[in-house]
Amino acid sequence: MPADEVTDPVTAKQVRSSAGATAMPPETAPARPQVDVSAARAALRDVPHEPGAPKPDPIVVVDGVRRTFGGLTAVDVAHLEIQRGVITGLIGPNGAGKTTFFNLMTGFDRPDEGDWSFNGTSLKGIPAYRVARRGMVRTFQLTKVLSKLTVLENMRVGATGQHGERLLRAMFAPFWRKQETSNTTKADALLERFLLIKKREDFAGSLSGGQRKLLEMARALMADPELVMLDEPMAGVNPALKQSLLGHVKSLRDDGRTVLFVEHDMDMVRDISDWVIVMAQGKVIAEGPPDSVMGDQRVIDAYLGSHHDQDISEDMEDKIIAQAQAEIDDDNSSTAPADVEGEHRA
Amino acid sequence: MDWQSIFSEALQQGLGPVAAVYCLAAIGLNVHFGYTGLLNFGQAGFMAVGGYAVSSFVATWGLPFWLGSLAGLFAAGVLALLLGVPTLRLRADYLAIVTIAAAEIIRQTIGSVTLLTYFGGQDGLQGFSSSFANLNPFSGPVGIPGVVTWRPYDFWTLLVCWVLAALCCLMVWALMRSPWGRVLKGIREDEDAVRSLGKNVYAYKMQSLMIGGLIGGLAGIMSALQHSAINPSFFATDTTFFAYTVLLVGGAARVLGPVAGTIVFWFLISFLDLFFGQATSGTNPLIPDWLMNSNQASLVRFIFMGAALMLLMVYRPQGIFGDRRELAIDAR
Amino acid sequence: MHARPRSVLAVILAMLAVVIASLLVAGGTAASASTVRAAASDACTKPPPRKDETIHVQGCLSDLREKPPAPVPDVSFDIQDEAGKVVGSGKSNASGVFDIPLPGKAIDNLGKTFTIKIDKSTLPKGAALRNSKQVSLKVTLKLDSDVYVTFPIGDAEGAGTGKGVQALQLAVGGLVFALLLAMASLGLSMIFGTTGLTNFAHGELVTFGALAAFGIDSLPGEIRVAGTDVTIAVAIVFATVASAAFGWLNDWALWRPLRKRGTGLVAMMVVSIGLSVLLRNLYQYFAGADTHQYSQFSSPSPYHWGPVLVTPKDIFVVLLSSAVLVLVTMALQRTRLGKATRAVADNTALAAATGINVDRVISVVWIVGAMLAGLSGVLLGMTQGFDYQIGFKILLLVFAATVLGGLGTVWGAIVGALVIGLFVEVSTLIIPAELKFVGALVVLIVVLLIRPQGLLGKAQRVG
Predict the structure, then answer these.
(1) Is A155 exposed, middle or buried (0-12, 13-18, 19+ CB in 10 A)?
(2) 3-state SS string for chain A
(3) Looking at the complex, does the CB of residue C304 fall below 8 Å from at least one CB of chain A?
(4) According to the model, what pLDDT value does residue A126 have?
(5) Which is nearest to C264 in space by CA: C205, C193, C197?
(6) Predicted pLDDT at A37
(7) What pLDDT shows up at residue C47?
(8) What letter would DSSP give residue C39?
(9) Chains with ≥3 Cβ pairs under 8 A against B?
């Protein structure tokens, strides 16, 4: 938990108006400085369109982060700043290291070298759960809903600072019942907002792909994060749901949260991002507002060869890629690949 | 074939002290495997440290019984800590291998000639249960005459075991309905998701391992007391597998699963044991000797257990009473 | 890249060829060396239980240098009471057993402590107590049943058999064991690599080999080719083939359907435990609980290589298992099928997408894996005898070897097995022999603590 327990009245009001939540327990609400969206966007106007450009009010600053797998350099970011209060899109061809970068930032993977900070404090060596408690909550490319828990229980897990999550108090309901009630109210409000309220008592495993994405996003909001990191929020979502998902992502910014997302869907990137960062082969190769970035020759070069047929069968391709990636990830996490040769071993 | 005695004895076993000990062990596993998804294949190790702590404290060092019992629980907790530190950050199968190895290390070390003076080698220890036996309020056979009866000491131990099991179930119930239990179930489903929500997954797994281990230690203590003796063969790997079968029969991640599982499973295998025992004994056995002799008859229960474990896991992972929708283990 | 049946057949035939070839080579030496001695089961038969009021001190002396241990007759014992008075004495008989009654009724002796002393001067030449300080054993009577004590007999310590030579001698035994372990571990590792299954029933594949060979060996009569008794050779070949078939059956009847259902790995692990219990008890049902020996190869006379004793059996096992290991690893490196196997292990989805018949590859992996396990079972049975749970007993060491080397890596399994095998034997220099498996398992846990990915494993995020 962040030590500061300041509840910004403005923030609280915003949450109430947007999520309809009653007063939340102070310790679950990390202080979220109020950001004027239009001002933040305006501030980006003066930022040069080049990799590693300094931002007026960065929430995340990355310095020299490198991650290699064997001989392959997956991520090598010299300098990167992410502006507070806006939606930043992270794009790049497949294998550019976007997800690895996400993993590094959130403590799910450790870089070989480099340092990065969140709100001015270094996150180097901080375990994933503490990163999340500091207000930087992520979702996953492959949605990670807790299938055998109900939608509501999924939401409740998301709340931070629960007394009932401490072993000794857990056994005696009076210690946590009140907090549970308020968390439930908050969860219901979020479910309402994310159109999942009818599914409240269903097992999360029974939800469709798009609903899972929604649930994951809503669950992340239970922790009141300052920075929401969405890893391919549109992957596997049916087109009908996409528009409403886009709206939800935008509404995060309107809450005063910062959003960083990875996406393949260029329409979405163009539609909602205030700023776009392009990665290729582990490096940041371009930065800027969506329109200027997409016209950038470096970006086109990076995409040629892997995504040159973007407009023809974008959805299909994305689906295939997401699926293949999912399977690969799944394999990597559940099975140690047997490297039979053994010569490549470090 | 004396059906009445078979039924009566099978019932005696199904509710008996040995079954109750396995029930305790399975409750521990339920916390590990059912709720947290931790594959502890070394529950026998937790039982061994519990049982041997109490028996060696009393029989070898002449310390009081209550101190030995506390030491047994303490030892089980320490074992959980020792096993958890290296493995809980690793993949599930590592925990399985390390726990099964640790249980074997404990069993072989305790049974070694080198430590004969403390733990009595393969013969084990006796004469440590008198303090417990002195508390026994029963003096004659207890039970329903004509249906099922137990000897006084057996009834005393089974009573204590089942009361303990009930208390453990109560604790599990209280824990698993709480936010703490919710986090455990979340870890079982997807620990990265839970981690991304700011929960210290490692600490929760450790707590789960310790709680289940303590209950395992309790099972070990009761096992020693129930036999009034202890030796390494009580704590062979198959003991753990028995407990798993019991758990799966009743249904993992259900508070009363281990209880139901124990009674049903123990009744069944005792029934099989008694039936085949009778069918292969006497001068003109029901089953001819070339097909099955009395030694082979005693193996039927294990064959049945192996088959039960496989079939349950494949066809009814939710247990015989469970609802498939609530299936906690991702077995499909 | 298609895994063709032809290449499957080629690998299997090549393995068989190796088995047969080395059998022919070693068969000659073994046949000449084998002087069939009294069956090993004669050693250490416990005297029949009596019904009387006295407590007897019983024990058995066997020379552990021989495999199976040979009885040591005509060694004298004294029993002293707490005051040091000799209250009984006796000698070991032809089967190494001694049986000395204690004076007085059982009830009088309870709680008393007796000292059983061995008279070292009556030991046969060259033999000595393994633990030279353990001339006497103290026993406190707690039950009114007979007391059973053992004095392990081994090499005489002294001039010429310093620690170095002992270590060397142990290393020979360790190497034999290590190679057998390596075959079993390689099988486990291949199966794990391609299917992700941590197969707790792998030990039963090992036992299956030992039992299949025993089935041939215990058929009445002998199988003779050109006047030489080749029963054991036929038994080994049969066991290898039968194990291969059994491996295929395992996959076809159980694991493939489970994979098709999408059964989770944890669930499969539990199923494998059930299978292990089921098979182990079926083995006991049909083969009994006794320890068996194959009829041939029981006690060939050893060669002296410098100060180290090496039996023809050791040489045979080392040659055969090294050849098989080399063959399998070569096949994995060079053949199409081997490459397909590695591709499946690396990334199943991708392998399937490139047209590899994943099911067939996995089938082959099961066949080869079970074959390796079965062969290691037969050879293990040859070197140290076997019973229905020989595989289960070494299962944890097999796991230790695979995890030590890095789960799912082929070289890792072999290297891990060499380390574990040698460690198990050589560590007995320092730790009591009864704790040698414990030592290896402790090594496993320590390695996991320091290097979770194993010695040769890729440094990847594992948690």
Answers:
(1) buried
(2) CCCCCCCCHHHHHHHHHHHCCCCCCHHHCCCCCCCCHHHHHHHHCCCCCCCCCCCCCEEEEEEEEEEEECCEEEEEEEEEEEECCCEEEEECCCCCCHHHHHHHHCCCCCCCEEEEEECCEECCCCCHHHHHHCCEEECCCCCCCCCCCEHHHHHHHHCCCCHHHCHHHHCCHHHCHHHHHHHHHHHHHHHHHCCCHHHCCCEHHHCCHHHHHHHHHHHHHHCCCCEEEEECCCCCCCHHHHHHHHHHHHHHHHCCCEEEEECCCHHHHHHHCCEEEEEECCEEEEEECHHHHHCCHHHHHHHCCCCCCCCCCHHHHHHHHHHHHHHHHHHHHHCCCCCCCCCCCC
(3) no
(4) 92
(5) C197
(6) 67
(7) 60
(8) -
(9) A, C
**Hey, what amino acid is at C330?**
M
CA–CA dist B219, B317 (Å, integer):
24
Q: Tell me the CA distances in angstroms from B129 to A268, B54, B116, one per residue in order.
A: 73, 9, 20
Chain A: residue nearest C186 by CA? A340
Nearest to A170 among B178, B192, B200 (CB): B178
CATH class of B3-326: mainly alpha
Spans of chain C, pLDDT less than 70: 1-16, 18-53, 64-69, 125-127, 130-135, 142-145, 152, 154-161, 296-300, 456-463
- Cα A199 to Cα A191, A248, A314, C381: the distances in Å are 9, 18, 31, 61
> Residue A113, Cβ neighbours under 10 Å: how many?
12
- Residue A337 is nearest to which of C333, C341, C345, comparing CB atoms? C345
Q: What is the CA radius of gyration of chain A?
A: 20
What average pLDDT does this structure show over B37-48?
94
Minimum distance, in Å, between the CA of residue C347 and any CA atom of chain A: 7
pTM for this one? Answer: 0.79
Chain A residues with beta carbon closer than 8 angstroms to that of B171: 171
CA distance C154 to C160: 15
Work out whether the CA dihedral A20, A25, A29, A34 comes out positive or negative: positive
Residue numbers in C near A327 (CB within 8 A): 349
pLDDT range class, residue A71, cuts 50, 70, 90: confident
Interface of A with B in 267-286 (CB under 8 A): none
Residue with tokens 């409750």: B27
| b/e burial code for range A313-326 (CB count within 10 A of at least 16 → b) | eeeebbeebbeebb
How long is chain A? 346
Which residues of A are less than 8 Å from C345 in CB distance?
337-340
For B308, the token pair is 């039960």
Q: Which CATH class is domain A9-20+32-307?
A: alpha beta
Domain regions of chain B by residue span: 3-326
* CB distance B243 to B22 below 8 Å: yes
**How far, CA to CA in Å, does B63 sit from each of B132, B134, C141?**
14, 16, 21
Domains and CATH numbers, chain C: 5-36+162-450 (no CATH), 41-155 (2.60.40.10)
Burial class (CB in 10 A: 0-12, 13-18, 19+), A42: exposed
Instruction: Provide the phi-psi class of C454: left if phi over 0, else alpha when psi is between -120 and 50, else beta.
Output: left
Cβ contacts from A onto B, under 8 A: 108
* Secondary structure element (H or E) that encloses residue C136, with its range: strand C136-140
Touching subunits of C (3+ CB pairs, under 8 Å) are A, B
Length of chain B (residues):
332
Is there a contact between B114 and C432 if contact means CB atoms under 8 Å apart?
yes
* Beta strands at C147-150 and C56-60: parallel, antiparallel or unpaired: parallel
Neighbours of B310 (CB within 10 A): 23
Instruction: Give the 3-state secondary structure of residue C86.
Output: strand
Distance between CA atoms of residues C343 and C347, nearest Å: 6
